[in-house]
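A reminder before we start the practical. When you read a complex entry, don't treat the lines as separate problems. The point of joint prediction is that each chain is placed relative to the others, so the output describes one connected object in space. Small molecules and nucleic acid strands, if listed, are placed in the same frame. In the example below there are two entries. Take a minute to note the order of the lines before looking further.
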Amino acid sequence: MDFNLPPELEEKRKIVRAFALKEFTDDKKRYFDENEKFPFEIRKKALEQGILQYGNYWDLLITIEELFRVDPGLGFSIFASFFGNENIMLLGTDEQKKKYLDPVLKGEKIMGFAVTEPVAGSDVAGIASKLEKQPDGSWILNGSKMFITNGTIADHLVVVARSGPVPSDQKRHHNMSMVIVETKWPGVSTNKLYGKMGMRASDTAEVIFDNVRVPKENLLGEEGKGFYYAMNFFNISRIYVAAMAIGIAQGALDLIVEKAKKDKAFSSMESTQFTIAEIATRIEAARLITYKAASYLFQFNPDPVLTSMAKYYAAETGTYATEKALLATGMDGAVISLERMFRDAKINEIWEGSSEIEELTVYRMLMKKLESE
Amino acid sequence: MNMDEEHKVLESVLKEFSQKEIEPVNKSIEIDGLSSDLKNKLASQGFLGALAPVETGGANLDRLGYSILLREIATASPSAAFYIFIQNSLVIKSLMKDKNMEIISQIASGKISGTMAYSTRLNMLDPGHIKKNGNMIEGVLNAVFNSTGNIFIVNVEEENNLYMIDSGYEKLPNHEQLGFRGVSFSPVRFKSSNFKPLSTKMDEIIEDIHLPVAAIAIGIANGALSKAISYAKERDAFLHKLKDFQPLAFNMAQAYSELDAFNTYLVSVAEDQKDLKKEMMLKTVSLDFARRTSKLALQVHGGYGYLMDFGVEKFYRDAMFLSIVGGHSLIDRVKLSELIFEGKAGFI
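Here is the predicted structure of the whole assembly.
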């Protein structure tokens, strides 16, 4: 068992860190956060410098950690331009990949994934948006989606909607399908959501579909399997959310260590030392679970128990670390990046399956595993 | 513990005031700051001069009345409660000993506002520094709340004396502001020959902030939990109301029970004569409770909790910020350890 990452990944970690430290200046961090603007220029630079390597999963994981370590809002904006691409990668036809995936991976286009609805957050089976099949095989899409990352800036969205009746309360997850929708099509409208507590550089929106005609060739995968595809996607994205949270926790640790280096009285106290030790230990534990879950996923053998454990524990570590670091650094932390990280960290306990959903998943999948042993 | 009739009436009036005057403008408080209209309403109710004598237009509240005031206002808007705290616990208290009644009267009426620049008493590597050279006080203090105010109480650390300054200051660009966004927060540069010495010491003022800080913290927890409970009754998920799910219901029931205990604890400490140890104990646990409860409330709201429109995220930010600005957490913990161990403790 080797716990060391390959040298090329360690090297990439250094490159990403150098990029983030250079590009995510204090002024930019504050500007994009306060003004809730998407950092197009920084994203462009990241693409030009090859910071994001989508074909290399481990590379991406390390990259996310290092971007979020310096600034979660800017890091997320850069990374999430590709949000939902795995659906097309795994399910798309050659034509769909050429049209909708390649330009996204090249950085020419931005995409998003629209699952959540105003009345269906964690409860994905409660989705009410409707896809009605037309005689020519195309679909008419109606409904609204909420908290959609890149909603107002995406060129296209992968959308999950109900394509058939609900068979019963127990089978609400049946009869959903996944389609690719171009945001310039008639009937698609978006409202940017302002006033988020954190991740304010990123674009989040409500997306409304009003009689949107979706060509039959834009169906992703098989009709009726949208719920399962979405769950499969979350098994992937949760690993990346865990990496985001680990990056934030590491960033919080960096800032408390920075104060400890400057202030000998502060670092000489055991309360400070214990805080640093506790945060560092939790980060290590979160990273180990995440890397283990990632190793299964990246070998195309995901373990949902480990994935949910990783997302749940890492997200909690992010909020824990930022809170403890703020308490320890006091006003020094409150007027620098740490206060922003504290605001940014909390969302990881909510999106891509709240912590409660992760715990339920751990229980259910664990029981299934144990019962079959 | 039962409150007397007078305090019950006060509590009831405050609940009604918060509901009618603060709740409707809560979002604009967070975005634009406390409006002059709201400040006038706070003044006309006697809240800006809560600790000031009646003859200055103040309400002359006792410890319990003042605690109830801060708790109830914080339940609706922690920023508004913090503003009242600054005017009373920091400014009016500093001015009372020298009977600066004219200034106190103006603060109580809302005509002017003040602040005490106490960054040197917070956990901050570079709180700034001011010095007194003959007839000039000059320097910069790095973390000043209500920095758009008209009068500043500053401490010249070399002589440990407070001075009141009403001209010769410059507000510098705002800090990033985690909490209490209704109140301005920035460094302030002083160069003033127009100052007046005060006989109150800064440490006397800081020693008295534990009880009011605890009251604000309990108000934050109350406000956050009330919203979470309402939301859990209305929001459906998985064909049930959120309240039907054990992890959420149990956590909220736990917080609700704790809140009841905290309210009783607050009344008990506030009704007694000043007791530093008890007040510090109350503040320590109240801040922890406010952070935990506001975090729970945000989690119950899911993605909506992350949006300003739902009025929950401010409690999460404000609870954390209050934990930082409600005193020097490290010095406070050392002091509390010393009070509990009746001697030197917690210094390694």
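Discuss with your neighbour: The mean pLDDT of chain A is 95. What might explain this?
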